[in-house]
Write a structure and sequence with these properties.
The protein is α+β, with helices and mostly antiparallel strands. It is built from six helices and seven strands. The N and C termini lie far apart (70 Å).
């Protein structure tokens, strides 16, 4: 019995150390330049309905159920999705809009696990058209802090952002 308590104590100490050493925040983002003007790009990115056209996750579950509420493209509008194990269930709500430069959403994941993150688009004019940065960020809380030692968020989600931006470029430039 004494050995078991000793093992449990050591495991708790290791988990505690990992928690305090782990990163407390994360951010993943990708950029692309599209050959359209800022206004056109901004209006398209503001639309939660248009986002589904090029979303890399829509491809992972063509049967995903999506509902929209509010006036699409305005603060307070949101989408709710329910899908397979690859997309889970969640909600995305537009929280902040800075015309022709920034859009921020709150992503509330409900399944397969609960978490909340901030999604964002940064838009700026460049010589070739418009540079779009798409990303998401958030805070790690226990026990996810410990899991972050074993999960590279950039490698896990970055490729989806790259795929989505490539699809967005094809969509907006057509």
């Amino acid at each position: 019995m004494k050995i078991l308590l000793y093992i449990i104590g050591v495991l708790a100490l290791v988990v505690g150390i990992l928690h305090f050493m782990a990163p407390k925040t994360y951010q993943v983002d990708r950029k692309i330049v599209v050959s359209k003007d800022v206004d056109t790009v901004f209006k398209s990115l503001c639309s939660l309905k248009e986002q589904q056209i090029w979303s890399p996750w829509a491809e992972k579950d063509p049967e995903m159920k999506i509902t929209y509420s509010g006036n699409d493209g305005t603060i307070g509008s949101f989408t709710h999705w329910t899908g397979n194990k690859d997309v889970g269930e969640g909600k995305q709500e537009i929280k902040k809009i800075e015309p022709n430069s920034y859009i921020e959403t709150e992503l509330r994941f409900l399944e397969p696990w609960e978490s909340t993150s901030t999604g964002f688009f940064e838009i700026k004019p460049v010589a070739e058209g418009t540079e779009v940065t798409w990303g998401f960020k958030g805070k790690n809380t226990f026990p996810s802090t410990v899991m972050m030692f074993f999960i590279d968020m950039d490698k896990a989600i970055g490729p989806d952002f790259e795929k989505g931006l490539a699809k967005f470029k094809a969509y907006i430039e057509k």
